[in-house]
TrEMBL record:
Taxonomic lineage from the root: Bacteria, Bacillati, Actinomycetota, Thermoleophilia, Solirubrobacterales
Record's keyword annotation contains Hydrolase: yes
Protein name: Signal peptidase I
Subcellular location, record wording: Cell membrane; Membrane
Gene symbol of the encoding locus: lepB
MF terms in GO: signal peptidase activity
Family per record: Belongs to the peptidase S26 family.
Catalytic activity: Cleavage of hydrophobic, N-terminal signal or leader sequences from secreted and periplasmic proteins
Primary localisation category: membrane
Length: 208
């Protein structure tokens, strides 16, 4: 028995349905599984260049906590909008050069911005900065991937303790990064996901 040919309106309806399903799947993948992210600044150089595009694992964020070394996309605290610490007067500009410390507590709510930085401190860690290198629980961390901090005053900061369920974030370009030194650790709930691969430009394709 020969099939009855589809009408033009039937074919159009089928095409619209296929496009709608494909669009829905793409949006669902971005919303819940993998999201692309464009690097907006040089704060993560040399690891990530301005304009580079990375993939962010959103679903993994629901099953495991961040670890030191992870590169995360996250909402910073609202204090990041104006480099404000959650403790008035505290942060790298705190009370003169002899007592400068990183910001130990962020403002209470998240910003709408998306940042990308590296985890350098987990809950309960004691963190200090020496010549741009992280001193974690008394030990200078291996960080051959960073860009030299230079002579900036914020390259040497005293010790703070990271609060429960919070993470201290820094850019790999230690002398040119707006990070937790200024506005404090981020809350676990503010993490969007972990960046796991670069997909553009072609010469930068690969895992992170």
């Amino acid at each position: 028995m020969r099939r009855k040919p589809k009408s033009a309106s039937g074919s159009l309806l089928e095409l619209v349905f296929i496009v709608a399903v494909a669009l829905g799947l793409a949006l669902g993948i971005q919303a819940f599984i993998v999201k692309p992210y464009r690097i907006p600044s040089g704060s993560m150089e040399p690891t990530l260049a301005v304009g580079e595009r990375v993939l962010v694992n959103r679903i993994g964020n629901n099953f495991s906590d961040p670890k030191v070394g992870d590169i995360l996309v996250f909402h910073p605290p609202k204090g990041a909008d104006v480099n404000e610490c959650g403790i008035p007067g505290q942060g790298p500009f705190y009370d003169g050069p002899q007592s400068r410390i990183p910001c130990s507590r962020s403002t209470s709510t998240a910003s709408d911005q998306n940042f990308i930085k590296r985890v350098v401190g987990e809950p309960g860690d004691r963190i200090a900065i020496r010549d741009g290198h992280v001193v974690r629980n008394g030990r200078v961390q291996e960080d051959s991937f960073i860009k030299d901090c230079g002579q900036g005053a914020d390259c040497n900061l005293g010790t703070i303790t990271i609060p429960k369920d919070q993470y201290f974030m820094m850019g790999d370009n230690r002398g040119e990064s707006d990070d937790s030194r200024y506005w404090g650790p981020i809350k676990r709930d503010w993490v969007i996901g972990g960046a796991f691969a670069s997909y553009w430009p072609p010469k930068r394709i690969g895992p992170l």
